[in-house]
Protein 1
Amino acid sequence: MEEKRSPWKDAWLNGLLAGVIMLYFSLVGMVKTFSSREVVGALSLGHVTLLLSLGVVVYTFLRRHKQESRGTLLGQAALMGAIGGFLLGLLPLLGQWVDFRFMLVQASPELYALLRFGQNPTVGFVLLIAVSAVTSMVIALIDFLPDFWRNAVVNAFLITIVVGMLSDLFKGMTIHAIFDPFMGASGLNYIGAVVVFLLSVAYFWMGKRRGEIKAEAAKDKTEAMAKKALPRWAVAGLLVAFLLFLPLILGSYLSHVLNMVGLYVIMGLGLNIVVGYAGLLDLGYVAFFALGAYTMGVLTSTSPLGVAHMTFWEALPFAILVALTAGILLGVPVLRMRGDYLAIVTLGFGEIIRILAVSDALKPFIGGAQGILSIIKPIIKFGGRTLLEFQTPIHFYYLILVGIGIAFFVAYRLRESRLGRAWMAMREDEDVAEAMGIDLVVIKLTAFGFGASFSGLAGAIFASYVGSIFPASFNLLISINVLSLIIVGGVGSLPGVVVGSLALVGLPELLREFAEYRMLMYGLALIAMMLLKPEGFWPEPIRQRELHAGEESGD
Amino acid sequence: MAPILDAQGVTKRFGGLVAVNNLDFTIEEGSIASVIGPNGAGKTTFFNCITGFYTPEEGHIIFDGHEIQGLRPDQVTKRGISRTYQNIRLFSNMTALENIMVGRHPLMRHTWWDAILHTSRYHKEEEEALEEAVRLLNFVGLAGLGDQMARNLPYGAQRRLEIARALASKPKLLLLDEPTAGMNPQETTEMIHFIQHLRDELGLSILLIEHDMKVVMTISEKIAVMDFGKKIAEGKPIDIQRNPRVIEAYLGRGAASGLSENEATATATA
């Protein structure tokens, strides 16, 4: 049998772990940089980082030692907090005598001041230990709540932090006056935080009540059916209306952020066909984005590089077609490759396209590192009269929304077909899929083709949106971003792509000042996802069909 | 009656190892035939040669009047052969119903274009496929489990689901690779009845690989015994039971009479 550590010893070690993690975040400079953004009142993002690292350690400890009595657990939580705080507190305490900066450049006086709560070293040291011990005890108390309330409180707390972190968002909106009473200098004020917290708890409570009502109604089946039919349309209608009015509320900057999210959604939907449905790990996805963008550039640019001077609409089919062809051409040599090998070859393909774009050989045609400038914007004409010229981010928002709509529609319908099932069968077991009469060559190439054409569409819109394109915009990071957002959202899930894009493209775009730590946070987020929620934020629902089919044949 | 499957001189080599050696075997239409033999005798390799997963180096496999050796697995399936696996290989993250619907793939014609536009062909085929899948699900006794993930089904149900998936392509010949592996005696008896039921109800020809002698002797009309890639005996169950070479292969040379000492040693070292 596995030898079990005694809980007190485990608490001790976990306290050390929490301390080390908090020290690490402090010494890489995250805490100090993050403290420039206030979340709630005087509580900065730097504090939140420390708090969350302590919280995660305490929480996992409590999960492991459920069987202990509550009093003991409370004591152990306090011990963990105190040890963590002690370790972290040593930094500013010793820092007054020893200069750590000769090797740890981030051990700055500002960080020390932050960790001492602005007090003198001794008082700050004691205060830090006390605060982290008390925080740990509060976390333990929350953990003692019944399941529903614990989840509600934890989620509401996280929502409050996210809202506070993104409160600049509300200030940028055209209707910001509504939110002003709840806003502090750069975050929520205390009233705002309480309001957001309570609203979130209320939301979860309503969700629970609705579930209960549904369960009751399910006993009386017909009533449940009648109730279900109506709201679905209503929800869809509301969603469309909301999306149509959104940029008017958000204003120009936030619409721009949403546009970037939207372009990634289109790409994500495409890569989701290749990776999520068909299980073909493609790391060179950016190549098709680049091909779409460059085709649009070469065909429409008014600069000397432009060859055809087409309109946006004339060039769009070509951009998609070029990407599609490239997708199929790439598919042919990798038909017999699986898993890791496929990933490496596609990775290489992505790099080849980027290197071709910067190469001198192609410079006369696509501009090398200087790229292609003056790519024209889409114009809608009717009977010789210009109805609309897409200029601002808000205009492009609608264009991208239409693009997402089409991509969503196509991806959804393909999944619900013979082809979609064949893809998923291949993802599950390639040999068996072939033995079921599925022609692997055809379905692999269609998967690559569809994936590439979505990416080509996104690239074409991107080129026209930013007006000029450079090889540097098409680096490996885009492929990794798209793949990560699919994983975070839930592999194979369509709404997951949207959630993933908002989380991995929208958030970093809004937290630009912390771009330095983007990769660190990415890595942490992916590891946390794999451990805690491997199915993603919005996993694909299991389709219920048998009963449905029974009903149809029943009448 | 003409044979549905006629294998002539099939040979499959892996490097120096001859996994299937000059094998002749026929299956009459509408019959249940079995291939038995000790582990590593080449039974599954023979299966893989029939289904197109391997291409035999020599010999012909004639199915329903056409040569099929060298065709890809999907092409073989389209001609009317489908199979199950020794260690169950369902699409584990798809529902039971979806598994069966994948099996129907070769009978459907609609393309991505039909799927996006929801043409009448798409609607017709999807409705038929769903109806047929539910019917097959009921046929194998899994009614009500269609929306379960395949991996969540109990072992016996997974075996049945695999058969339902194989039936969805409306095969003329069904290959079952150890359908009763890992089953208890009662489940085994049920499976025997089920396989007989399959043949009687659907008029299928069935080829089994099986280790369980009770199963083989109960349901087979014809048995081929393989050892080290060669067919060492063929005939009705009653003949096979008495055949000294079969007893040798299964129980070792000592069990059969009239053997020289060095032959026994050769077997032991092999």
Protein 2
Amino acid sequence: MKKISYKYLLVLLSGVLVFVSCQKVLDPEPEMVLSDQIALTTTVGIQSAVIGCYHKMQSGDLYGGNVWAGGEMLANNVKKSGEGNIVFEETQLLEKNMSDENRIVTSLWSNSFSLIHSVNSIIKAVPEVTDPDIEKEKDRLIGEAKFIRGMMYFDMIRYYGNPNDGNGVPLLTEPLTIFDQPARATTEAVYQQVIADLTDAANLLPENNNDRATKWAAKAILSRVYFYKKEYQNAADIATEVINSGKFALVDSMPLNYAEGSPSEEVIFAMMSTLTDASCGTLNGYFRQAQGAKFSPSNTLAKIFLFSGGMDDKRYTQLFKIVSDKLFCAKFDQRYMNVPIIRLAELYLTRGESIFNGATVSGITALGDINIIRLRAGLTPLETLNSTSIYYERTKELALEGDNFFNQKRLEKDKISDYELPWNNRKLLYLIPKSELEVNPNLVQN
Amino acid sequence: MFVFLALILFGVSALGQNGKIVGTVSDKDSGETLPGANIMIKGTNIGMSTDINGVYSINNAPLDKITLVCSYVGYLNLSKDVTIVSGQTLTVDFALQEDNMMLDEIVVIGFGTKRKRDITTSISKVKAEEIEGIPVANFAKSLQGRAPGVQVTSDNGIAGGAITMRIRGTSSLKASSEPLYVVDGVPVITGSFTTSDGFPDKSNALSQINPSDIASYEILKDASAAAVYGSRGTNGVVLITTKSGSLQKGKGLEKTNFSFNYSAGILDVTNRMKILDGPQYLALSQEAYWNSVHTEETSPLYKPELSYDEAMANYYNQLPYGITEEIAKKTNTNWVDEALRQGFVQEANLSASGGNTKSTYYLGGGYFEEKGILIDNKFKRINGRINFTHNATEKLSFGANTSISYTIDNRVPTGWQGGLGTAQSRSIPIMPIYDSTGGYYAAKTSGHSNIRAEINNLDYEARILGLISNVFGQYRITPFLSFKTEFGLNNLALRESKYEGLITQEDQVAQDRRVLVNNWIATQSLNYFKTFNGVHNVTGLLSYVVQESKQNDVWFTGKDFPSPSLTNPNSGAIRTAGDFATAFGYASYVGRFTYNYSGKYYATFSLRADGSSRFGKDNKWGYFPAGSIGWSISEEKFMQNVDFLSFLKLRISYGITGNSEIDNFGYYGSYNTNEQYYGSAGITPNNVGNKELGWEKTSQIDIGIDFGFFDGRIHGGMDYYNKLTSDLLIEVNVPQTSGFSKAITNIGKLENKGFEFFITSYNLTQGKIKWNTDFNISYNKNEITELPNNQKISGISLGGNYGNNYAVVGYPAGVWELVDFAGVDPETGKPLFINQETGEATTEYNYDRDAILTGNPYPEWIGGLNNTITYDNFDLGILFTWSLGHNVYRDDGKFLEGGKIGENWNQMQIIEDRWQKPGDITDIPKLIYDGTYSTYNTTQYLDDASYVRLKTFQLGYTLPNKITQKIHMTNVRFYFNANNLLTFTKYKGWDPEVNRDYGSNNNVTQGVTYLSPPQVKSFTFGVNMNF
């Protein structure tokens, strides 16, 4: 009998052991993610969240691709190359009949607000961080956050801002919950926030920041913002500050601006790539001939080169190429290239045109600035300027870098794209995503 | 059983004067003698069993009027009253009637067993011998058509490929709808753990299990049966019992029974979709080009001024991949032949089983190899199993069921990713395989459409070690109360290697990936059973179950190698690595109480409380009650005179079950880690979090009848059920200004209603020819009844893939939204669509205005008809299965029926019936070179996918006993098996049984093909030997 009860005990014991471990079984902590309760409570957490913002920006939906390419498609600066497979979302942009479910359109909305939410969470969390490291990092982190928010809002209103009724996008400076239903702010109000953010950022950010946002990046983007807002004096003044900073210089070999590795001297801010984490994948897919580029530069764009400088223009000979009788853009040929968001050349063009439009900068002329860009491209200096020659220069210098579509709208051209739509035509606007309208009754469609 | 037998054998002699009884026990129908039958004197423990000739003798019968009871497994008991007279030898023979209904058969019900006659819930049992000899790696494939209410779809014919099983319809939209599989008490790992990167079609971990080790499948269908599995019971439960040893009756006590089987044969596609050959393609694509140039005013190619010759010169100039006029005219590559082959399958299993009164064992080893119909696709499995039980004392017993398997799975790219999918689409027949130098033609520039190059460029192998083990001990505390402890393990260790060389790409890429899944479960149970006053039968169960599962993946990729001969990732110039981890746990209490009064009135009540790590912090525990009642009407006195009716039972059950196959950390508000930028680690908001997130809840009522006529010669059952699922897990759109696009909540409802009917008939039981028929049919209607804001949710956002399937209130899950195709305009050759505003046909394609909800991806009617005929030593089994009332949307149809003829896609041969001139009546529009048609999602590509299939045809021959004995065997059978032999369908693609690759689940993306691989048919010869 003794023997049996002993065995009986053993059998029971195994069961009891398992009783003990029950609570642990029900509460495993996920290893792959970080609890939202603790993520932003430390300096390291805030730093990582800021890096996370850059990670979002580098995606193909934002600055690694469609923030640039969307405008180029709308302006018909690109056409189907016949090599890569064009998806219908791209066709819709090319044909100006984007639906409110077009993925390129909806993903700009969702990714922008996701980014802005992250930025707002960071700005809100910084004052609550208690560890001592925050003091010396605080300015830089807030500066980066505001830089990102300012730049993102600027690009959002360029796509969604409706010039006909002044409607911009919801303006958020605090993280919202899923129950909030904000309405659209006016384009003007958003502009004011953009200017305030970029101004703050320029004050808070250091001059060097490990190839992330700097004081000069904030100023350069601010100059762009003023230029698009047609506050030409401000645009010219801030451009002058950046040009005179001595930090940047035009490079002789233009492909260096689109290279792998460290950014060239000319690049003020870029989305950086590494061999394992490229920012340029989407742009490679659009333009890189070696992997079956979806797009070729359009005839309209090619003609501007050929009619104003032709084969003398290094921007054509070095940055475009012809393969089997087809023209391709070679700016995005490097597989791990940094995607330049703003270069010094743009600031010369911005300042030159601002002066042409009435701004004054002592000792500087519009013609001088434009000729700096022409000379670098191997062209002869112009003797006189007119609006067309300025437009050509900007178009060529920034070809397929996401500027031209908005530049045409700024100039209020009455025939934009192959479809010859006036600049303020609704078909040139991105629509608010259908799914967003369904859950937020306070939004009105473009 | 053997314990019982032992008691009889060692029964003590009665005292006093004795009489002698002798006799023979035989089968009433065949007259064959039955060795090992038991004869007992009722009310005593005196008895004897028959010897090998079916003869018994009892020497110590008391001199009295006694009742002799003869019993034998599988036969009805027979009693005879006799009077024993001293000194006289009485001869009493028994001719036993086979128990056609097997009412005393033991059925596994989850946390226990029951006699079939006592069951008051809906459970289908499939015995292994019914599905023997079907050469499939995954047992689930052979269950098709065998059990009512159980829909099994083999997603495709890939060796080692995936299956979809639905028990009583789809109960979820976003969570899994696959049943819970429990092997010997251990809920096992299912689903795919291999990479989907480059290999869109999934594998399934169930292929780790050797079907020939399995003794029976019990499928729990209604709530009362499945509610003991609580939050995991909604989708039904498949209980798998593996083989165990048993004492061999009538052949000595400790004989070892060896069994060996081997089969081998060939595999082929069930059907070939016809696509264009070189000359056809060239002619039709030229026609399309000419139409665009000459008559299509909206085409970018439109230049009516060009002559035909000029246009053709342009045509040849624009051919891709450097194909010239000369090459185009002389090339006729059958790319499908370059991707397909005749497959080969072979299987060998050897087992030994046996036992004595103390111990029983089953030892099995198996080898399975399938060289699939897709070139390079191969699946191999080696496994071993040992099942062992031992009775240490009368009270204490213990044992283990353990299987280890090792599989090697060579997967291949399929569907939109390559292989056969590319061969039927982007590989055009005017492209040669080889160029003039003997190398692969345009290997690097043809966008991976030279699949010979592609196939040769890739090496892939997954090696998986799988373990399923259950160790148990049981102690009988009192005669009525026992305690059982069980500990189960289910582990998978997977190593996957992938190498892509330089044939088709610029850099070599090698990847090594490891997955480890560790899963344990511990169950402690108290079981109580007692009969009061001989009529009140009571059982009780109390269990405590804890389960934990962890998964860890790591992968390592190397790119850009110094030498083409290197294939290990570490040699790459660019190396990346990653990992993944997840886990879940359950802690559960299970209680069950059953009562039956004298085998007439039954009642069962059960309750399970489930705590799960998957549920939000504020909703940690779920409670799942269920009950059922039964009435054996045929046991009533007033029914005793109804001779033709041998059995009739009415049963009703109701209960609540859950579906907790939700994301492991769906409730957890979190930031994503490893969101790097420029070499720094970053985090981004990931999940908004929901502390109340829980299981999906299903309440189900089931009303069933079991019946038997003419001594059970005809018997069967029917069930009506209504399953209402609420708290469906839906990702609702939230304002994106919150930083999130979606938040997951328990909202939404759907229902499944249906009935099931099955009948078994022993048509011929006497004489040389024996014939019986099994028939089952079931009907299910699925309808979504509530969604947040009545929104229409796409299959893609529910974890599926493209295919235009939606979840919409008032429609079955997966209904399609398509524009109604109305044929081709006989005048212009343009496709016509119904304008939903005017009701008239128009050539304008306007999806927003004209799309309608149509079709149903899930069959309404499924079933099977099996006939088994034996004649002499021959046996023949023929199984027809069917699936009726559902559709398949060929999402590739819009590309393959003219849509992408101008984009270098091959086309289906049916486009030869295209419109050519005014007046032509056809469904294929005028061919044009622009991709306009390729954007049309219309009912033109929605096929009626109903089919009837000659699923299994098996002819066997068993060697006569004389020969068998000479070679010292007990049984030798040769057989020929054909699977998926014939299919009757109107479906236009490869095979109507198809499911395209999907993301995390395919509840809504169902019945869609996108270049998906077809099914296979097999022809195998095999032999079974028992000795």
